[in-house]
Amino acid sequence: MDWHLQKLKHVVDSGDFNRAAVDVVFKEALKMEKVRPGSPESRVLDGYIMSTLFYEPSTRTRLSFESAMSRLGGTVLSTESAGEYSSAAKGETLEDTVRTVEGYADCIVIRHNQEGSAKRAAAVASVPILNAGDGPGQHPTQALLDLYTIQREIGRLENIKVGMVGDLANGRTVRSLCMCLSMYPGVEIFFVAPEVVRMRDDVKEYLTKRGVKWTEVSDLREVAGHVDVLYQTRIQRERFTDMDSYNAARGKYIIDKELMQILQPHAVVMHPLPRVDEITTDVDSDPRAAYFRQARNGLYVRMALLKLCLADKKIADDLLQQ
After folding, report:
1. From CA 273, how far away is CA 61, in angstroms rounded?
2. Residue 174's domain spans which residues?
3. Across 9-101, where does the E strand assignment appear?
4. pTM for this model (two decimals)
5. How many CA atoms lie within 13 A of 71 on its CB side?
6. Which stretches of the chain score pLDDT less than 50?
7. Which of 167, 258, 309, 313 lies at a CB distance of 3.0 to 4.6 Å from 197, suitable for a disulfide?
């Protein structure tokens, strides 16, 4: 059954969303952009409680989820550094934590350092689980907000060229985005990464099976002049056990003012943030720098997801009939 028609909606894997479901989320996100304090829409989740369980650090994802819930009238139970300050420090399993917390909240947003953790949580949960990132695995809400940003910035999702740059082996954002982009015809993807963090084979095989053209390229300048979207990511130091490999990867691909001169006038630069030094700050004033607009779009998309997961189950059906 399509995601938007399911009674219990988890947001765990980007592959769970087809184009119809994405369209429903985007239609709702457009409405969320117009929500103002005191309006009827700002109270649609009044009485609902969202719990956030974050076992890894987060700024944008956690705060945007909490802001999204608050802007729709809901309440937040927040736990940061859950691995250190929750009962996980005493040895409690993730499954037991979820079974307990679902008694206190109507949905659970979880970020964990282990790939597949969100699926484990959803397997035992009777409330919606929203995956806020599971190690190097998936980050579906980021992928949806990235798609939404591309649609808003470029005006289409079909027939676009996307350059993905940086830590593609550990970057859950690019993995999830690849899965979502594969739904749209005419998409071409260029992978630009240091040898030690090249895109993993499972994603490349996924794209090939779906007829998506992809190419691995070593020259960022060669790609920059041809793409509609240049999606930069940081080299994730926390995923490395060998610092020599990290140092070999860091700083190889940097977007600066000189590179922006190559970028097409209509193209945009995106980044899931945080950045370190892979985009120089003098790029921020360029109108093609879309990463802060991208972060703001995360609020609207997460508002839409929370509303669809928690509010009247007829919302999505009504949207489709419009």
Report:
1. 10
2. 140-295
3. 49-54, 75-80
4. 0.90
5. 20
6. 85, 316-317
7. 167
